[in-house]
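ESCALATION

Customer reports they have been waiting on this structure for their group meeting. Please prioritize. Original submission:
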Amino acid sequence: MLRARPLRLDRPADLAPAFLRLGLPTPAREYLLEKLPLVHVLLTGLERAQGRFLAGLFADSEHPGREEYPTWVAGDPRTRPGTGLLSGRREQFERVVARARALPEQGALAEALARVWAAAAPPAPLGLGGRTLHFGARTHVMGVVNVTPDSFSDGGRYLDPEAAVAQGLRLAEAGADLLDLGAESTRPGARPVPAEAQLARLLPVIEGLRARTDVPLSVDTTLAAVARGTLAAGAVLINDISGGHFEPALFGAVAEAGAACCLMHIQGTPETMQRAPRYEDVVEDVLAFLEEGVARAVAAGVARERLLVDPGIGFGKTAGHNLFLLRRLDELRVLGLPVLVGTSRKGFLGGLTGGRPVDERLAASLGSVAALAALGSVDIVRVHDVAETRDALAVADALREALEGGARYGR
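Update from on-call: job pushed to the front of the queue and completed.
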């Protein structure tokens, strides 16, 4: 399948300070922000006709210096057929898209490249219960409440409904934008928990929280029966670690309730996922998995604007896979959906910090979310330590938007 992945895309927030420093009037700044952004796009799954079309554009360019279209570099035809790299300014890409759209056989290429530019804009706002999450200005926080006896991070501490409700209220008071409740551990090696047992754990907690806070509630489950029961009780988001692959009927339950759904990537199951995970291209494989899940969710009646995606850090991935995915998280933006990431207290952070146990990984967890927020790569972070995360994000988000460079910048 043809896919265009933005390796680097200039953001308005990156260019705006330079234009202010130049003293350009507002109309000029707006024009340049529309035309000048530079992008490097990795293309995979190209058919021969598409590759010939792109190579021909550059060869036939009549503009002085051959700058009418982006630079084209084809992949090795023997070892990496169907790949290439386009590098150029936005206006150059717009010419490619216009030429491709004029040829019916190049429609897929035109749409793939158009999605790259759409990825630069924040996802559409997401309504959850009585609240609406607006993306782009700041990173939102999802607080975790494990109603389980065997969670890797706090096993058994909140299994009692009253303890779970109290923890949820603490996280809400600390500033959580939403709460994620789970009644089934998904740590490596964990076994499934039947729907009846999950509902018995979750329903009293949902009831208790709904009576005392208006923070939107998410439920971490892969089962349609659990989704249906918890959504009826007041949850508004289903967080499915399988991306709808374990039980496809889950999407129907979400659609019936008009709820939102987060699709996560996983390789294997929690029982098997860490048995030598392997990928040909971890970003490509994750994107393909999520795209397929999104298509099935929409076909089942879930509105696309009610979907989120999660790369599944630690779910069927080595430490190296996790780090590469986090480094290239912007490539998931081509889906046009909010990106949720959970790194909190995970094992690869312990490995990076010399083998620290799970209860000593706060600093590493904060480092991971702050780095992603500063890059603008994530919309929601799923964490155990809400207050500390909010502080770290306040700094990272402010850094990303900083414009007070002195009088020459108009500030």
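Sent to customer with the following note: DSSP finds 14 helices and 14 strands in the chain.
Escalation resolved.
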